[in-house]
């Protein structure tokens, strides 16, 4: 890593740092989930709707896999996370929060989520699903905090506080 990149990550503090870490953790879990879904043929079936595409194709071009969001959403999260790391926090944090919400809803509407609750799946698959539910909640929390901090830095007050004059 060159010196400039090292400086960018060394200056991360507070909510921005936490948001970058938790978003990175979600991306790692999504990669594990994608690998697992492709290798064990777990297609994405939100609300029970299936495209009929092979899992790898559905991940790349469709609804995602049963254990991960579609590739375009993960790429968007990666780009936005880099933007937060480089200081473009307010808008990027908002969109990361939006993606976190989408990731959470997407996992909850998968039929495999119910299978995990009933204990009908392999432990690794269940672990990926649990992390797919918990991390988006944490992402949403840190995204809100990061956006509030960026708003305070920009205008002197966070959202919800009265502004004078």
Q: How is this structure best described in words?
A:
By secondary structure, this protein is an all-alpha fold. The chain has helices at 3-10, 14-40, 55-61, 71-85, 89-108, 111-117, 123-155. The mean pLDDT is 88.
Topology, element by element:
Elements: H1 3-10, H2 14-40, H3 55-61, H4 71-85, H5 89-108, H6 111-117, H7 123-155
Helix pairs in contact: 2-4, 2-7, 4-5, 5-7, 6-7
Amount of beta strand:
under 5%
DSSP summary, beta strand count: 0
Report the average pLDDT across residues. Answer: 88
Q: Give the overall shape.
A: elongated
| Helix amount | over 70%
Oligomer, anyone?
A: single chain
SS-based class: mainly alpha
H and E string: HHHHHHH
Uncertain spans: none
In short:
The protein has 165 residues and is mainly alpha-helical. The protein contains seven helices and no strands. The protein starts with a helix and ends in a 10-residue tail after the last helix.
Which terms would index this structure?
single chain; 165 residues; mainly alpha; 7 helices
């Amino acid at each position: 890593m060159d010196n400039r990149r090292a400086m960018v990550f060394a200056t991360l503090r507070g909510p921005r740092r936490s948001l970058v870490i938790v978003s990175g953790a979600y991306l790692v879990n999504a990669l594990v989930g994608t690998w697992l879904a492709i290798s064990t043929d777990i297609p994405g079936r939100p609300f029970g709707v299936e495209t009929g595409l092979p899992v790898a194709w559905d991940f790349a071009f469709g609804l995602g896999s049963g254990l991960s969001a579609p590739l375009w959403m993960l790429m968007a999260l990666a780009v936005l996370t880099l933007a937060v790391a480089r200081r473009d926090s307010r808008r990027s944090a908002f969109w990361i929060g939006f993606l976190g919400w989408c990731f959470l809803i997407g996992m909850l509407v998968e039929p495999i989520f119910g299978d995990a609750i009933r204990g009908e799946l392999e432990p690794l698959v269940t672990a990926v699903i649990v992390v797919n539910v918990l991390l988006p909640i944490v992402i949403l929390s840190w995204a809100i905090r990061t956006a509030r901090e960026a708003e305070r830095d920009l205008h002197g007050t966070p959202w919800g506080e009265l502004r004078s004059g």
